[in-house]
Write a structure and sequence with these properties.
It is built from 15 helices and seven strands. By secondary structure, the protein is an alpha+beta fold. A hairpin with a 4-residue loop joins strand 5 and strand 6 (36-47).
Length: 436
């Protein structure tokens, strides 16, 4: 018999306080600290004439050590994911839009060397993705996300010391790739587990929209700090936000998945068209994250102005990602994609021909609208395609083909020695998303 004077029986739906109940069966016990005792398990207990079976957490505290701060933490796992990704996006985006320029402008690497860095990064990313999935299966999804933090901080440290140590770029690229491989594999699996198919458009839209809003002012702040204080301040802030984002991951329980790597699992015959979609999506990542900042900086020639472009793009995209995400749960997502894809391709064709600040602003507004309208339906469909029995293998395949797309686009730009040509190629390959 447990007497509940100082015992709290908690779950999302039921709180039993100052009541007597008989615990009939307990399958597992965890002791977390010296003054807090948790039972986290499937419990069978009797209250009155009723026997209740459920999965609860039993927390026993000392009378003088009540701590109510835990009530203010979000209990819903999706909310925890939203907060964690928002903090991370803000931190990383403080310098993300400027990193290609840091190599090319600040450190004096040629355009070819800068592009080669991202080719190395993409190759390491693809190769380490199966390793990240295996880590998730053994140690847990959220531990994979946490492991990505020190890996990313090593990357930041190497970048900061680059003027002194001159670390080879492939080594730096490897740490960045490992960090993001472990982060995205963990995040994809956590989000797939926490979201549901019926509301996935809205949930994906919220995740992306909240993340975009959290980084909305980050490019502007990053541009200001870099312009007047240098990269050192930005490096410190990025580190702080990465650690803060990790704090929200273990409020809820850890999850595990089964995964066994095989080359055959990279492509399923019945899903032959999806690798083409992922390749086109990978191309867009590099066009937007690497080629576009390099291209427009030549015109703007100012970090602060570049930060303002990122601010403008984020505001438009965030609003539409959230709104269209909710709409896509009630309408055919593929129909929405068909309506928007042509305009998205047109936005990339137009980017190849901008030459003034006004044109950059105009095409940024247009691109923000098309991206915001397209991202939620496409993202939700990508998660819907994951078979629950092969979810890890699916995301490994997705990430590998994304990396192939990144490498193909950057290699094409190197081959023709023309960044604008990469925008035109991306505009054409963007049409492959219609295969979803």
């Amino acid at each position: 018999m447990f007497h509940g004077a100082e015992r709290f029986f908690m779950s999302e739906r039921l709180i039993i306080y100052q009541m007597d109940f008989h615990l009939l069966s307990r399958l597992q016990v965890h002791v977390l600290t010296s003054n807090k005792f948790y039972l986290k398990t499937l419990l069978f207990f009797q209250y009155g004439e009723n026997v209740i079976k459920t999965d609860f957490i039993l927390l026993i505290m000392d009378h003088h050590q009540h701590q109510f701060w835990w009530r203010f933490f979000p209990k819903k796992e999706l909310t925890q994911v939203y907060i964690s990704t928002a903090l991370r996006y803000f931190g990383v985006s403080l310098m993300g839009i400027f990193f290609p320029l840091y190599l090319h402008v600040e450190q004096g690497y040629s355009l070819q060397q800068t592009i080669l860095f991202f080719i190395f990064y993409s190759a390491f990313f693809g190769a380490s993705t199966p390793l990240a999935a295996k880590f998730c299966s053994k140690y847990g999804l959220k531990h994979s996300i946490v492991l990505s933090v020190p890996l990313y901080l090593v990357f930041i440290l190497l970048i900061y010391l680059l003027p002194v140590l001159k670390t080879p770029l492939p080594i730096i690229a490897a740490f960045l790739a490992l960090s993001l491989a472990f982060y995205w594999m963990g995040l994809h699996l956590v989000f797939h587990h926490a979201s549901d198919r019926i509301h996935r458009g809205e949930e994906f839209g919220k995740r992306e929209g909240i993340s975009i809003l959290s980084k909305m002012v980050a490019p502007l702040i990053g541009g200001f700090l870099i312009q007047f204080f240098g990269f050192k301040v930005v490096f410190v802030l990025v580190s702080l936000f990465l650690f803060a984002s990790a704090l929200f991951l273990f409020i809820s329980k850890e999850d595990y998945i089964k995964y066994h790597f095989s080359f055959r699992s990279l492509i399923e015959r019945e899903h032959w068209q999806y690798p083409l979609v992922f390749i086109s999506r990978g191309m867009r990542v590099m066009a937007d994250g690497v080629l576009w900042p390099l291209f427009i900086f030549v015109i703007l020639d100012n970090y602060l102005a570049l930060g303002f472009v990122g601010f403008l793009l984020s505001g438009l995209s965030a609003l539409l990602v959230i709104v269209i995400g909710k709409i896509s749960d009630h309408y055919d997502r593929r129909k929405i994609i068909q309506w928007v894809t042509g305009f998205e391709s047109l936005s990339w064709f137009l980017r190849a021909f901008v030459s003034t600040t006004g044109q950059i602003m105009g095409v940024t507004i247009f691109g923000g609208i098309t991206y915001g309208a397209m991202e939620s339906p496409v993202g939700a469909l990508e998660y819907d395609l994951a078979n629950r029995n092969k979810v890890a293998a699916y995301f490994v395949s997705r990430e590998v083909f994304l990396c192939i797309g990144r490498i193909l686009l950057l290699s094409f730009v190197l081959l023709i020695n023309n960044v604008a040509g990469g925008f035109i190629l991306n505009g054409f390959t963007n049409l492959l998303v219609l295969l979803l």
